[in-house]
Amino acid sequence: MMQKSINAGLGSLTAVMLSTTSLWAADELNALVWCDHTDPALLEPFEKAHNVRVNVKEYEGTAAGLAILDQSRPGDWDVMVIDGVDVGRAVDEGRLAALPADEFDTGTFFPEVVMPENNTRDGVTYAVTEKFGYNTITYNAAKVDLEDMNSMSSLWSGKYDGRIAIYDYYLPLLGLLGLEQGVATSDLDADAVEALRDRLYALKEAAQSVSDVVASQTALATGEVDVVIGGGEWLTAVLAAENPDLNWSIPKEGALRWTQSIAVLEESENKDLAVEFIKYITSPEGQARLATSSCYWAMPANASAGDILTDDEKSTLRWDQQADYLSRTQLYPIPDADLDLAMQDLWTDMLQQ
Questions:
Q1: Which of 43, 45, 203, 326 is most exposed, with the fewest beta carbons within 10 Å of its own?
Q2: Would you give the end-to-end CA distance of the chain in angstroms?
C-alpha cells in the first residue's frame, strides 16, 4: 500500500479540536463504515482530540449495512457511511437523523458531488457527501493494448478472455453495461435491464473472477488478471508506487461516478459526538486523510483538501483532470424497489452461471 504524507494542517486542527475535549470526556463512537474509514491515520486525530474511541465495523453494500442495523440493538450504532444513491432509501426507512445543515458548509466542495437530491429530503439534510470516484476500466498497461482500453466493447472481443475480473457490485456494473449498449443510467428500467442479460452472461464467461474490492486489487496487483471492469482510481491509486503500470481510463462510452455519504443514525444516543465526527471527516484535514486512506484512494468531496494533499498525491488522484471526468461520467442508476430486485436477481443469476 502507498504510504500517506498528510501532516500539513494537523497541528492547527488538533489545537482547535482539543479546545472542545472536555465536551466529550472518555466516550465511544460506533460507526458502520467502508474499509477506507478503518485506517488509524484517519481515526486517531479525532480520537486523541476528543478523548474518545471510535469503534468501526466494515461492511460492503447497503443491504449488508442495513441488515447489520436490523440485527443490532437500538442505539448500538452512531454513524453510517452509505452509498450516496442509497441515502433516500435509508431516510424512507427512518434510519438516519436530521443534521444541523448550518454546521456543514459545502461551499468548497466540488459542486457536482454535493448531491442535495441524494442527501436531503424536503429541505432537511440527512447526510453529507465525503468522497467520490469512478467505476470504469482498470488495467495493467504492460499487459493490454492501450487502444482497447478506450472502449468497453473490447472486453467482449475474446482477446482478454480469462484475464478479466468483474467488480462484484450490481449497480455500477449493470450501469456500465447499459452505457456500453447505449443506455443512459437514468433510462435503465426493467426491460432495459433484462436486455443486458446476454451481455452480462457473456462477460462472466470471459472473466476469471467476480471479486470484491480487496480481491480485485490483489488479482490485478499479482497479475492474476489484467483488466477489472468496474474498477477505477480507488483500485489502483494505493498500488501506483509499487506498480505504475496499473492504470485506469474512461472509455468512449463513458463511465459511472460514485459518491459516498456519511450520516448520523436516528437511534444513536451519541448524536452530538457523531455530528462532530462528520464535521472532522468533511474538514480539509479529514478529507485529505480519507482521500488517501490505506484501503483505497479516491477524490475528496471537499476541494479544500487540495491545499493539504501533496503534489504527488494530487497527481495520483488526477486532481487536474476532474473537470473532464465529471463531465464524461453519469451517476449511478437509482432503482425503485422493484427495479432493484430485478437487478439483484439478474446479478444472482449471473453469479450462478
A1: 326
A2: 34
146-182 tens-digit pLDDT: 999 999 999 999 999 999 999 999 999 999 999 999 9
CA dist., res. 50 & res. 29, Å (int): 11
In this structure, CATH architecture of domain 2-132+258-320: 3-Layer(aba) Sandwich (3.40)
- Three-class DSSP category at 227: strand
> Alpha carbon of 10 to those of 65, 206, 293: distances in Å?
31, 48, 16
How far apart CA 344 and CA 153 sit, in angstroms, is 23
Domain boundaries, the chain: 2-132+258-320, 133-257+329-351
Cα(236)–Cα(54) distance, integer angstroms: 28
C-alpha cell at 160: 482478454
Query: Quick one: DSSP state of residue 332?
Result: P
- CB–CB of 313/5 below 8 Å? yes
Class of domain 133-257+329-351: alpha beta
- Give the residues across from 80 on adjacent strands: 32, 263
